Amino acid sequence: MKFIISILLLTSLTLSHSCFADISIVVNIANGRAISDTEISRLFLGKLKKFSGGDSATPVNSKAGNAARADFEKKVLNKSSSQIKAYWSKRVFSGKGKPPTEVENDAAVLAFVAANPGAIGYVDAASVDASVKVVKTF
Amino acid sequence: MKHKIKILSLFSALVVSSVQAEIVFNGFANIVAGATTSSDETLYGFDDKFDFKNGSLFALQATSELGDGLGVTAQIISRGSNEWSPEFEWAYVSYDATDELRLLVGRQRVPFYMYSDFIDVSYAYPWITPPEGVYSVPFDSFDGLGAIYSTSFGEFDTTVQVLYGANNDDLAALADAPAAFEDLMGLSVTINREWLTLRAGYIQTNMNIYLGDPNENPLYTGWTAFGYPEVASNFVIEDDTGDFIELGFQVDYENVVLIGEYTSLTLDSTPIADADSYYVMAGYRFDNIMVHVTYGVDDDSKDPLTTGIQPDSPQLAGLIAGTNIFTNSLTEEQSYYTMGLRWDFHDSAAIKFEYTSFSDDLDSTNDSGLFRTAIVTVF
Predict the structure, then answer these.
(1) Does A127 fall in a domain?
(2) What residue ranges are annotated as transmembrane (chain B) (predicted)?
């Protein structure tokens, strides 16, 4: 019984976590463009390789298993982590493309975005600092 | 042995080059177990003894980006059905000419079907394998040139793939008959917008398949002796043309998945039937579990080879009758239902269960039931 309660507690904690963490989409400070939700999702799915103005875009992923990654996939891409994994395995094993570069955590995403003018990433809204520009928060 | 040496030398070549460029390894594996429900039934290579080998495979892919849009990829698959002997199923140099255009030179998949490109990556689709009734062309790969052009019209993502090449592998599906598919060429177009994907493909190839000494085939020798070489030529596959058409759709809307594919294979002037096949599938996702049901039909037939030939003699009449019996025997009408469940129990792995009920509408002794289960993973 105690076990079941702790599982329930754990589940509700996990659930509330994934429901309440806001995800901020961040770009380089020098990037002045407005970016639509569809563009964000298409950039991260490899369907779009440039920002609408024509500059090359470099999306960066947070490592698989990070809360920000799961929340981003759920809220912005509207897919589960397994669905995204299946999507990329189709492309990787058929020579059609590869998933965005992966970095360790929110801090590494911010560092990557701050250092690369074309970068676009996502972090927990609470992690955002002045080194990047937030284009949208989900 | 020779094969192993080749693989080793390729790997060492890749490893040596890694001094300059990073190599990324990816892989996938399917462990499939299956058995038919009764002792006199066989289906898709399974019989009533539980088998773990027939559908199982391991694959490893090595990719290296060499810079300036150039890349090298090799994918090696070991299949239980092939005594786990590793085979190169993809081995190509890719070049990203522009953001939209990618060229592949080397060994790659023929884009016959919607799932051809990743036909062995069971993790990437709901079933354990795509419906065998439709996915029935006896080879998957070719050696040659492929061009993939991907572009967007508004929110419509379009991918156009063209290919030209050949496949000279022996045909495992025809008792390792020596075969040559030359001038293999084709086009596939895929259009995707949010939840809807539409696809069409056309592939054509010149075919030479050795089916044994034609002089031991009485139909071949008979028509040759009666002075009808054009009829006799139907019993050999020499410089014949195969045509393949595919149409497919996929709807992935919230928790509902609908998939359908129709294919038509035409093999004029050969002793092999033409085939029309389709399946439709409906699935529903409950969080990390998906249930699905598929219904499929295969119709095989051969046009008569003796139309317009006058039976001038009893011998010729006998040959015509024998030939008609042969072409009629190629007629098949089959259908099947598959019920399946996929459970994504892990971020990189899924368990699948499937039951297929197969009906042969012309010979019910071929009816069978097949239960399969699989663990599939990507890494």
Answers:
(1) yes
(2) none
CB-CB neighbors (< 8 A) of B148 in chain A: 95-96
A50 and B344 within 8 Å at the Cβ level: the answer is no
Is residue A12 situated within a structural domain?
no
Helix (H) or strand (E) holding B223: helix B218-225
Is A48's Cβ below 8 Å from some Cβ in B?
yes
On whether any CB of chain B is under 8 Å from the CB of A90, the answer is: yes
DSSP B144-210: EEEEEEEEEETTEEEEEEEEEEEE---BGGGTTB-EEEEEEEEEEEEEEETTEEEEEEEEEEEEEE-
**Which chain A residues are within 8 Å of B156, Cβ to Cβ?**
none
Q: Which two tokens stand for residue B308?
A: 């317009």
Residue B267 has pLDDT above 90, yes or no: yes
Parent domain of B305:
94-372
Question: Is residue B34 a part of any domain in this protein?
Answer: no
Contact B99 A50 (CB under 8 A): yes
Look up the CATH number of the domain holding residue A80: 3.40.190.10
pLDDT digits (tens, 9 = 90+) for B33-67: 999 988 888 898 898 888 898 899 999 999 999 98
Domain that holds residue A130: 22-137
pLDDT at A15: 47
- Nearest 5°: the CA angle A12, A17, A19 is 95
Size of interface A-B (CB pairs under 8 A): 69
Please indicate whether, in this complex, the C-beta atoms of A96 and B59 are within 8 angstroms of each other: no
The structural domain count of chain A equals 1
Query: Mind listing the pLDDT tens digit for each residue in B270-328?
Result: 999 999 999 999 999 998 999 999 999 999 999 999 888 888 889 889 999 999 999 99
Can you tell me whether residue B358 is helix, strand or coil? strand
What ipTM does this complex have? 0.83
Instruction: Tell me whether residue B345 is in a domain.
Output: yes
A125 assigned to some structural domain:
yes
pLDDT averaged over every residue in chain A:
85
